[in-house]
């Protein structure tokens, strides 16, 4: 069984897949509490559904892209067979994960979008850095930054761990409403940082507090 918050079709708002039609399977529950979390509604409740029902509903919307998100999807063991079933059905599968759980058992056909939590999130001690060794060029690393201190932390990690050589893209985005995208771009250009600006497209379309879109 899986505890599901919602399943819906929309436009992908982040990552290198931004702008594409995508079905989101949002699982309930998260063991982190990032200060700027925009999906606290997914921390609790949710509907218990079988793997078969979730798979059917995710495929029924007919988008090529399907993303498993949360909350934290890897807290639920059946997230793994769900991703396998979606990939078996020919879908391009994305996994958005906090980076706190072990990602090594995820089906290799899945594009893993792994967060690295910056200090401003209040959860950077939870980063599972062992996950870096499992990343491939199919995957993406994402960091959400609140201020200059977060940026310098990200810059240090990118350079020290050569993150841009481990994954398809290193994504840097500002905390919505806290750090101006223009400021972040200026910092990235000044440092010639090998990273990609990641703006939450869905928030620009529907507003910061929009849910289920
Ligand atoms: S990991 Fe994601 S869902 Fe969990 S608190 Fe952080 S931002 Fe929210």
Q: Quick gist of this model?
A:
24% of the residues lie in helices and 23% in strands. The protein is an alpha/beta fold. The two termini are 25 Å apart.
Descriptive report:
The chain is an alpha/beta fold. The chain has a single domain, classed as TIM Barrel. Helices cover 24% and strands 23% of the residues. The chain is built from 5 helices and 9 strands; from the N terminus they run βββαβαβββαβαβα. It has helices at 51-60, 79-88, 148-161, 181-191, 201-206; strands at residues 2-11, 21-27, 47-49, 65-69, 92-97, 111-115, 140-145, 169-174, 196-197. Strands 3-1-2-4-5-6-7-8-9 form a 9-stranded mixed beta sheet. Strand 8 (169-174), helix 4 and strand 9 (196-197) form a beta-alpha-beta unit. The protein is globular and about 50 Å long.
Record the SSE blueprint.
Layout: E1 2-11, E2 21-27, E3 47-49, H1 51-60, E4 65-69, H2 79-88, E5 92-97, E6 111-115, E7 140-145, H3 148-161, E8 169-174, H4 181-191, E9 196-197, H5 201-206
Parallel strand pairs: 2-4, 4-5, 5-6, 6-7, 7-8, 8-9
Antiparallel strand pairs: 1-2, 1-3
Helix pairs in contact: 1-2
This protein binds iron/sulfur cluster.
> Which structural category do the helix and sheet elements fall into?
alpha/beta
CATH class: Alpha Beta
Shape: globular
Weakly predicted, low-confidence segments: none
Overall pLDDT metric: 96
CATH architecture: Alpha-Beta Barrel
Lateral strand order in the biggest sheet: 3-1-2-4-5-6-7-8-9
Distance between the termini: 25 Å
Largest sheet: 9 strands, mixed
CATH superfamily name? Aldolase class I
Task: Count all strands and give the number.
Answer: 9
Share of helical residues = 10-25%
The count of domains is 1
Q: What is the ordering of alpha helices and beta strands?
A: EEEHEHEEEHEHEH
The name of the CATH topology is TIM Barrel
Please indicate the percent range of residues in DSSP E strands (runs of 2 or more): 15-25%
Which ions and ligands are bound to the chains? iron/sulfur cluster
């Amino acid at each position: 069984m899986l505890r599901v918050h919602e399943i819906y079709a929309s436009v992908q708002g982040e990552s290198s897949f931004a702008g594409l039609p995508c079905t989101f399977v949002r699982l309930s529950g998260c063991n982190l509490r990032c200060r700027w979390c925009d999906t606290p509604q997914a921390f609790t409740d949710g509907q218990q559904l079988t793997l078969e029902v979730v798979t059917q509903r995710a495929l029924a919307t007919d988008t090529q892209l399907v993303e498993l998100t949360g909350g934290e999807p890897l807290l639920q063991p059946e997230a793994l067979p769900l991703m396998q079933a979606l990939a078996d059905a020919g879908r391009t599968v994305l996994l958005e994960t906090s980076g706190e759980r072990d990602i090594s058992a995820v089906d290799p056909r899945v594009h893993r979008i792994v967060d690295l939590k910056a200090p401003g999130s209040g959860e950077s001690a939870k980063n599972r850095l062992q996950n870096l060794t499992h990343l491939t060029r199919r995957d993406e690393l994402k960091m959400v930054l609140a201020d200059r201190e977060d940026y310098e932390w990200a810059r240090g990690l990118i350079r020290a761990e050569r993150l841009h050589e481990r994954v398809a893209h290193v994504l840097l985005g500002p905390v919505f409403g806290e750090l101006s995208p223009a400021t972040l771009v200026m910092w990235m250009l000044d440092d010639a940082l090998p990273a990609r600006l990641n703006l939450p497209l869905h928030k620009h379309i529907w507003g910061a507090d929009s849910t289920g879109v």
